[in-house]
Amino acid sequence: MEYKISFGKYSATVLSKGAELVSFTDGEKEYIWTGDEKYWSGHNPNLFPLIGRLKNGKVLFGGKDYFPGKHGFARGMEFSPVSRTESELTLAITQTEETRAVYPFDFVFEVTHRVFEGGFETVYTVKNTGGTVLYYTVGGHPGINLPALGADCVEGCRLVFEQAECPTIWYGDENVLIRDDYVRTDILRNTDTLLLTQEMFEGDALMMGGLKSNKVRLVSPTGAAVEMDYSGYPVMAFWTPPGKTAPFMCLEPWHGLPANAFESGEFSERAFCISLDPGAAKSHAYSVKVL
Fold first, then answer.
1. How far apart are CA 236 and CA 251, in angstroms?
2. Which of 96, 109, 134, 241 would be a feasible disulfide site paired with 128, CB 3.0-4.6 Å?
3. How many other C-beta atoms are found inside a 10 Å radius of the C-beta of residue 101?
4. What is the DSSP string of 31-55?
5. How many CA atoms lie within 13 A of 116 on its CB side?
6. How much is the average pLDDT of 160-182?
7. Tens digits of per-residue pLDDT, 126-156?
8. Which residue spans within 48-129 are E strands per DSSP?
9. How far apart are CA 192 and CA 216, in angstroms?
10. pTM of the model
């Protein structure tokens, strides 16, 4: 099912499958990637309860093997409506026999999208409805449609942070797994601006941790820009497909990381994993604004 929400001239389209916001427009320009399969069929998937690839295709919960798949199962599930206004929509999923086979917890996962003047906000709320501690990671994956900013690809675009940064920058091995000994130190050293090239993404996503800023701007060569507020997320990932010169760039706020090549596989030990006590709930928000 397809839902429409709006605020003034700004409107968004959200699908019940994956609770994915697949369009955000000002009535003239489309700012979310169109999903052209030539480059990437996604638009803006919601990543839960894990992020990225798995070591040996599996994770361990309490020492037992589970196989939930890359980026988790939420993006492929049908969400049900919880509440709706003209400018805001909340959709949710809960556990099923299928989810318990790959993720042994009782939960509610809500995704709220809200359109405001010039942008949109996405809020993830995780509720532990079971009797044991629940472990999860969560993140966004919005693809920004670069032609809306007057750019054909990432070449010549810039990332501009609120302040000078000197982050940890992870990248993956041949299996796109994080490695403790694969950390980039050749970019974004004590500056607020990173000039992008396609070559930077040949090793897949740039994953940055230890950032002092709460916001980053994606600025095209024309000066047009969008700004993401990722307050509360310990990792910001940036991705465009390797070797494709694609006309989009993903800005990805993550509370978690893909599997580490050296990890035990126990999910609760994964970097930035969140533990949630029975009956507890936690929310994570990010926003994107057109400048």
1. 7
2. 134
3. 12
4. -B----TTT-S-SS--B-S--S--G
5. 10
6. 84
7. 999 999 999 999 999 999 999 999 999 999 9
8. 59-61, 64-66, 80-84, 88-94, 107-116, 119-128
9. 9
10. 0.96
